[in-house]
UniProtKB/TrEMBL annotation:
Residues 18-212 form the Metallo-beta-lactamase domain. This is Ribonuclease BN, tRNA processing enzyme. GO terms for molecular function: 3'-tRNA processing endoribonuclease activity. Keywords: Zinc. The keyword Zinc applies. Signal peptide: none annotated. InterPro entries: Metallo-B-lactamas (IPR001279), RibonucZ/Hydroxyglut_hydro (IPR036866). The keyword Zinc applies. PANTHER family: METALLO-HYDROLASE YHFI-RELATED (PTHR46018:SF4), ZINC PHOSPHODIESTERASE ELAC PROTEIN 1 (PTHR46018).
């Protein structure tokens, strides 16, 4: 599978960029994981909107769902403006926040499908598994698998050893890193660089991508602070268009 960073900013997007959004592709099937503010505009650098097959939302904070309405309107207008016939399309989310889940669907244009922690879900060629995180609102990390590769995305969370267990065996861990070493994100349900590195070390993953990055400081420092916790892991900090093809 191939993963591309569409947006990676904590809370709100920097000028010309986007908050959380990751395009995951395999066998000509495209899933957008999270759809934060600015994502629909930036996504079009990497994928025609007509070619998107599904969206999976981790939770209903605006930096993860803020642009879902733009996708609704795109699907509404597609029959009138696109040369291509619309493909089946669905948005997946949890139902622990009923109002949040209702934001996913739109008239008879976009259908919302629930996921939960207790069952894996086949979405195109991918198998998704979900793990509750430590966050002020219900939020799910996800493991995304094909027969050849595994991606693990923490979504928003404070440090949790359980997530390291769940991420074991992943080819790439995409971990949120909202703060620098020494800053305590636990009450807000976020990790700092040291905790993200600790998570990667405990999960024993070969590669770590730090994302959901703060609007202050030097992101290069985040990488150094995480690397100190897991010397043998290849670490990158997210940037727009960062991309990696995973295979075993
Ligand atoms: Zn959040
Ligand atoms: Zn967030």
């Amino acid at each position: 599978m191939k993963v591309t960073v569409i947006g990676y900013w904590h809370a709100f997007p920097k000028k010309g960029e986007a908050a959380s959004g990751y395009l995951v592709e395999h066998d000509n099937y495209r899933v957008l994981v999270d759809c934060g503010s600015g994502v629909v505009s930036q996504l079009q650098h990497y994928c025609e909107l007509e070619d998107l097959d599904a969206v999976v939302i981790s939770h209903y904070h605006n930096d993860h769902i803020g642009d879902i309405g733009a996708l609704h309107y795109f699907r509404l207008l597609t029959p009138y403006i696109s040369q291509k016939a619309a493909k089946p399309f669905a948005v997946y989310g949890h139902q622990e926040d009923v109002q949040g889940f209702q934001r996913l669907s739109y008239k008879d244009v976009v259908n919302a499908i629930p996921y939960n922690e207790n069952q894996t879900l086949d979405i195109g060629p991918f198998q998704f598994s979900f793990y509750k995180t430590s966050h002020p609102v219900p939020c799910y990390a996800m493991k995304i698998q094909t027969s050849a590769s595994t991606l693990f995305y923490t979504a928003d969370t404070g440090y949790m050893p359980e997530l390291a267990e769940a991420a074991k065996g992943a080819d790439l861990l995409i971990a949120e890193c909202s703060l620098y070493k020494g800053q305590d994100g636990t009450p807000a349900g976020h990790m700092n660089s040291e905790e993200a590195g600790k998570l990667a070390n405990a999960a024993d993953v070969p590669a770590l991508l730090l994302t959901h990055l703060p609007h202050f400081g030097d992101h290069g420092q985040l990488k150094k602070e995480a690397q100190a916790q897991c010397p043998s892991t290849i670490i990158d900090t997210a940037s727009a268009g960062w991309s990696k093809t995973l295979s075993t």
